[in-house]
Give the backbone structure.
Amino acid sequence: MLFQFTIFKHYIIFNKMKNILSLAVALFLSFTAAVAQDKKDTETTTIKVDGVCASCKKRIENAAYINGVKHAEWDKETGLLTVSYKPSKVSRADISKAVADKGHNAGDVKADTTAYKKLPKCCAYNDGVHKH
Ligand SMILES: [Cu+2]
């Protein structure tokens, strides 16, 4: 009787562990699928953006981080803004527009003149200020 009970108990524990294991496997698989899906949905491109200094870099990158943008990095030396984004949520043109709205020429989009005039003197890339 005791022997039978022990067997039964082990059977229950074994079944529970089997359930936990399959749950863990299922979770892992769906997580992996989600990550793969996420990668496939992301595109990376570069946009030429005018700017001259570290403040410009901050401003440009902040402006580029609109909804759907996963990563934005501007290189002062090359003037290239590298962005990773979800094409289902946002377009390259949207990102250029957002950056131009803050006063920086971005790709084909000219900087908003009002925003440009508000930039600090050290950032006036159109008025003879060189990279510094
Ligand atoms: Cu600047």
About this structure: The CA atoms of residues 103 and 116 lie 4 Å apart. The chain has a mean pLDDT of 88. The chain has two domains: 1-40, 42-123. The pocket of copper (II) ion is lined by residues 51-53, 55-56, 122-123 (CB under 6 Å).
